[in-house]
């Protein structure tokens, strides 16, 4: 992957059940010069697909805009149901600087995409995180509050006019959040109970907005096909709040309700150092260095 400049994008699409639609969306990232598809995964309970793609700014922008166009055409939010909060066919589009790129470039790219999807598809959008036009729009959860069903009324309020587009969501595709941010780890922890209220109580205790860890967003989710519940987590800065710390806290809190943690999962890709830090903790490694990893040395 000989790109001189690399930006990552992790668009989230509101489709996790129809594989044909998912493939149509993902096809926009395949065999494109200047773009490399790294990963995509979907979940039926969340009814959501997460794509991880990297590339140089202009070809990446073109591929993302094309994928959004496909999602708008194929996904009808009036029929969409799922465990994960959402407000549009493409719910959120973050850009992350990786190599020879800056946050400022990602902010500019996010604005270009927001402008283009309005001009091409008449889909309005909010800018969030580093791209936010005001402090109240930095947090995605605040923008998304009310979800798709509540956006028609919310966007009429002066404080919630979109950054691009008219003051109403697209009639079938809703509205999108687009922005620049630091690398995020999507991390879910599963509990041996179908009682989602317990998962929600644990999520409340660990998320920052409720007095928990500074760089943690969390909510409870019911996984009906497995008859369990899940604490669904976004780690917004794993260098300041570690995965192992959150995992141990969830185990501790679960005991209060007489339930156990039965596993966890990473959604999409994860920075290697996020896992190394947890390995150091659980194995009690002393003075371990990333250079000791065989694959790291081979790739040098």
TrEMBL record:
Residues 183-297 form the Formiminotransferase C-terminal subdomain domain. One of its GO terms (biological process) is L-histidine metabolic process. Keywords: Cytoplasm, Folate-binding, Histidine metabolism, Transferase. InterPro entries: Formiminotransferase_C, Formiminotransferase_C_sf, Formiminotransferase_cat, Formiminotransferase_N, Formiminotransferase_N_sf, FormiminoTrfase_cat_dom_sf, FTCD. The keyword Kinase does not apply. Its EC number is 2.1.2.5. One of its GO terms (molecular function) is glutamate formimidoyltransferase activity. It comes from the Bacteria. It is found in: Cytoplasm. Residues 5-182 form the Formiminotransferase N-terminal subdomain domain. GO terms for cellular component: cytoplasm. Pathway: Amino-acid degradation; L-histidine degradation into L-glutamate; L-glutamate from N-formimidoyl-L-glutamate (transferase route): step 1/1. PANTHER family: FORMIMINOTRANSFERASE-CYCLODEAMINASE. This is glutamate formimidoyltransferase. It comes from Oceanotoga teriensis. The lineage of its organism: Bacteria, Thermotogati, Thermotogota, Thermotogae, Petrotogales.
């Amino acid at each position: 992957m000989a790109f001189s400049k690399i930006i990552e994008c992790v668009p989230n699409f509101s489709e996790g059940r129809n594989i044909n639609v998912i493939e149509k969306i993902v096809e926009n990232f395949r065999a494109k010069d200047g773009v490399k598809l790294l990963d995509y995964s979907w979940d039926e309970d969340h009814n959501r697909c997460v794509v991880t793609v990297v590339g140089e700014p202009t070809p990446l922008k073109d591929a993302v805009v094309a994928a959004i166009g496909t999602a708008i055409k194929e996904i009808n939010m009036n029929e969409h149901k799922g465990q994960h909060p959402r407000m549009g066919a493409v719910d959120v589009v973050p850009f992350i600087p990786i190599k020879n790129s800056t946050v400022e470039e990602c902010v500019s790219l996010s604005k270009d995409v927001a402008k283009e999807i309005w001009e091409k598809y008449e889909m309005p959008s909010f800018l969030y995180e580093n791209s936010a036009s005001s402090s109240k729009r930095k947090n995605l959860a605040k923008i998304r509050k009310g979800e798709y069903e509540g956006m028609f009324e919310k966007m009429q309020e002066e404080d919630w006019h979109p950054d691009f587009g008219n003051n109403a969501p697209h009639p079938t595709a809703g509205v999108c959040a687009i922005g620049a941010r630091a690398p995020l780890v999507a991390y879910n922890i599963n509990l041996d109970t179908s009682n989602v209220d317990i998962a929600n109580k644990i999520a409340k205790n660990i998320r920052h907005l409720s007095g928990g860890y500074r760089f943690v967003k969390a909510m409870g989710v019911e996984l009906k096909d497995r008859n369990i519940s899940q604490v669904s987590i976004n780690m917004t800065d794993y260098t300041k709040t570690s995965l192992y710390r959150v995992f141990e806290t969830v185990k501790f809190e679960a005991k209060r309700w007489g339930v156990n943690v039965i596993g966890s999962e990473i959604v999409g890709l994860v920075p290697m150092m996020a896992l190394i830090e947890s390995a150091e903790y659980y194995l009690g490694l002393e003075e371990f260095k990333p250079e000791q990893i065989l694959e790291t040395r081979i790739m040098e």
